[in-house]
């Protein structure tokens, strides 16, 4: 996960739902790219977690994202600075981690992700779900500049808030 202090409470809900969805005997290690999350919020989150979850914090260097575009809820596209943490996960995670399930901080987990985690990605870098709100890249909230990139506007757009990543391919 990657989030900032504004998403501390939703992230805690996501983590609690993940912990509650694990089957008996399952455990999960959560790696958080923390964008300016203070110790008070970290403590609250840690105290709310069941023993089946182990959380690891990485202080995300905001210089990585300086100058990248962001937008607010009132804008047509909603991108916060934390949306970019995904692009830098390889700089933070321990080298021995080969598989990552990346979740947005506002995701509700309803069943164990264990089977999903073992999904064969067929040599692809990631597995994703098609975006419900914008199912194709050529739609108004799709991929900016898709024509200039030589892409077919009918290609499916995926939601970056729920990704299964094969890190060596990534």
Q: Radius of gyration over alpha carbons?
A: 17 Å
Termini distance? Answer: 17 Å
Q: Assign a percent range to the helix content.
A: 10-25%
* Average pLDDT rating: 91
Low-confidence region ranges: none
Provide the structure class.
alpha/beta
Q: What's the story with the biggest beta sheet? A: 3 strands, parallel
Number of helices: 4
Beta-strand residue percentage = 15-25%
Number of strands: 6
Features:
4 helices; globular; alpha/beta; 22% strand; 170 residues; three-stranded antiparallel sheet
Concise description?
It is built from four helices and six strands.
Question: What would your notes on this structure say?
Answer:
This protein is an alpha/beta fold. The chain is 19% helix and 22% strand. The chain contains 4 helices and 6 strands; from the N terminus they run βαβαβαβαββ. The strands form 2 sheets. A 3-stranded parallel beta sheet has the order 1-2-3, covered by helices on one side. It has a 3-stranded antiparallel beta sheet with strand order 4-6-5, with no helix packed on it. α1 packs parallel to α2. It is globular, with a radius of gyration of 17 Å. It starts with a strand and ends with a strand. The mean pLDDT is 91.
């Amino acid at each position: 996960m990657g989030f900032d202090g504004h998403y501390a409470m939703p992230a805690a809900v996501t983590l609690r739902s993940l912990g509650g969805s694990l089957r008996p005997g399952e455990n999960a290690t959560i790696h958080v790219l923390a964008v300016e999350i203070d110790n008070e919020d970290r403590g609250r989150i840690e105290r709310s977690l069941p023993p089946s979850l182990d959380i690891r914090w990485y202080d995300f260097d905001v210089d990585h994202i300086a100058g990248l575009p962001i937008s607010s809820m009132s804008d047509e596209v909603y991108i916060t600075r934390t949306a970019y943490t995904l692009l830098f996960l390889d700089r933070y995670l321990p080298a021995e981690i080969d598989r990552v399930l990346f979740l947005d901080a506002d995701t509700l987990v309803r069943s164990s992700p264990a089977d999903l985690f073992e999904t064969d990605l067929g040599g692809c870098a990631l597995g994703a779900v098609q975006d419900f709100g914008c199912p194709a890249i050529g739609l108004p909230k799709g991929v900016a500049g898709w024509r200039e990139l030589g892409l077919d506007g009918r290609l499916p757009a995926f939601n970056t808030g729920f990704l299964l990543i094969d890190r060596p391919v990534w």
